[in-house]
Specification:
Number of domains: 2
CATH topology of the largest domain: Rossmann fold
Radius of gyration: 20 Å
Number of strands: 11
CATH class of the largest domain: Alpha Beta
Structural class: alpha/beta
Distance between the termini: 19 Å
CATH superfamily of the largest domain: HUPs
Largest sheet: 11 strands, mixed
Strand order of the largest sheet: 3-4-2-1-5-6-11-10-7-8-9
Length: 292
C-alpha cells in the first residue's frame, strides 16, 4: 500500500477514519492525503492549497459576497487542518493536507486519479443520520464508482481489532480477478477470512451445492486460515449485516461492479445498503477497475 486518501468533514467519524489510516500508514509506510471539500456553485474542482490562500484569486477579479464567505470558510478549515495535524501522533507520518472546492464526490474521484491512491478510508454516520453528514452523503457514490478499494467505518476501530473478516460473494467464478485484492487486504490486517454465501428465497440453493462451490473456490485460490458459512436471510444486504453481527466479524468485504451491481448475486443497491447499515467497517472494491 502506497497512498491512502482520507476525506474529512472534521466530524467524529472522520477522525476515526484518519486515526485508522494513521495506524495502517505506521505499519505499511503508506502516505496519507487528508482532504476536505468546500462545496461551491461552480462545476470545476479547484485546489485551494494547504498553506496559502493565493489560489483563491482564481475565483475572479470581482469579489462577491459568496467569495468572501468562502475565503473566511477556507481560513477556518485551514485552521482546523493545522489543529488536526498538530497531534504528535502524526509526527512520523507522511501526510499531506488538501482543501478543494467543488462537489465532494467529484473532488474525491479526481484526487484518486491525481494522487494514484490505492485505498480510501471514510467515516460515515450510517443510514440513520444520512442527511446530516457530508461524508455520509458522498459515501454511496464513492463506494459505487471508486477505482480503488474503499473502507468505510462508523465507529473507532484499531488494527488490533481486526481478526475476522467476512467476505460475501456468490463464489461461482473460481478465479475471479478480485482475489488478489482480497488476499492483500486480509494480509494487511493479518485476519482470518470467512467466506459467506447469503442464501435467499430469490437465489435459493441447497447446502450441498453451496458447500461444493465454497470449497472449490477456496481450493482454487489457495486460501489458508479460512472458514466457510451459509447464512439464510430474506435479503442479501440484511443477511450480510446480520451475519457479521451474529458471528462477531470485525470487518465485511465485498466486490461491486458499480452501476451494474454486484457480481451476479448482488443487486445494485447492496454495497450502499451494507455500508449504511453495517456497524462494522466495510471494504468494497469495484470490479470495473480490476483486471486479471
Amino acid at each position: 500500500m502506497q497512498k491512502i486518501i482520507v476525506p474529512t468533514d472534521f466530524s467524529e467519524q472522520a477522525s476515526h477514519a484518519l486515526n485508522f489510516a494513521r495506524e495502517i500508514a505506521s505499519q505499511t509506510g503508506a502516505k496519507i492525503v487528508l482532504m476536505h471539500v468546500l462545496e461551491y456553485a461552480k462545476k470545476q474542482t479547484t485546489f485551494l492549497g494547504s498553506s496559502t490562500l493565493s489560489t483563491m484569486g482564481t475565483l475572479g477579479t470581482g469579489v462577491e459576497m459568496d467569495d468572501i464567505y468562502f475565503i473566511q470558510l477556507f481560513k477556518r478549515r485551514k485552521e482546523q487542518m493545522a489543529e488536526v495535524l498538530s497531534d504528535p501522533l502524526f509526527a512520523n507520518i507522511d501526510i499531506t493536507d488538501k482543501i478543494l472546492m467543488g462537489t465532494p464526490y467529484h473532488a474525491i474521484e479526481e484526487e484518486i486519479t491525481e494522487s494514484d491512491a490505492d485505498f480510501i478510508i471514510m467515516g460515515t454516520t450510517g443510514v440513520n443520520d444520512w442527511a446530516e453528514s457530508l461524508i455520509g452523503s458522498t459515501a454511496e457514490k464513492v463506494v459505487r464508482h471508486a477505482s480503488c478499494p474503499v473502507l468505510t467505518l462508523r465507529k473507532e476501530v484499531h488494527l488490533a481489532d481486526i481478526s475476522k473478516i467476512a467476505f460475501a460473494s456468490d463464489f461461482k467464478e473460481l478465479n475471479p480477478p478480485y482475489m488478489t485484492m482480497v488476499k492483500n487486504i486480509r494480509k494487511l490486517f493479518d485476519a482470518e477470512l470467512h467466506l459467506v454465501y447469503i442464501n435467499t428465497p430469490g437465489h435459493f440453493k441447497n447446502e450441498r451445492e453451496i458447500n461444493k462451490n465454497l470449497n472449490a473456490f477456496a481450493a482454487a485460490n489457495q486460501l489458508d486460515d479460512h472458514k466457510t458459512h451459509i447464512y439464510s436471510h430474506e435479503h442479501e444486504e440484511e443477511g450480510i449485516v446480520c451475519f457479521a453481527e451474529d458471528q462477531k466479524m470485525n470487518m465485511v468485504m465485498m466486490a461491486t461492479t458499480g452501476r451494474s451491481g454486484f457480481s451476479r448475486l448482488f443487486e445494485h443497491s447492496i454495497a450502499e445498503d451494507v455500508v449504511n447499515f453495517s456497524k462494522k467497517p466495510v471494504v468494497t472494491f469495484n470490479l470495473n477497475y480490476i483486471s486479471k
